[in-house]
From TrEMBL:
Sequence ranges assigned to domain Thioredoxin in this UniProt record: 5-51
Native source organism of the sequence: Salmonella enterica I
Any one Gene Ontology molecular-function term assigned to this protein's record: protein-disulfide reductase activity
InterPro entries hit by this protein: Thioredoxin-like_sf, Thioredoxin_domain
Protein name: Thioredoxin
This protein's GO CC annotations: cytosol
């Protein structure tokens, strides 16, 4: 994984347990775990389902 130390942007990283937040998965169409959602300006800009390799 590349280092993000040289990027000068606002970045928030969050982890969400969908068992504790059951309304989130259907809201974003999450059907597999793990799922990574990248947001830009409050909208989903990219989605990756499965292991991040």
């Amino acid at each position: 994984m590349k280092s993000l130390t040289n990027i000068r942007a606002n970045l928030t990283v969050a982890k969400l347990n969908i068992d504790q937040n059951p309304g989130t998965a259907p809201k974003y169409g999450i059907r597999g775990i793990p799922t990574l959602l990248l947001f830009k300006n409050g909208e989903v800009a990219a989605t990756k389902v499965g292991a991040l390799v």
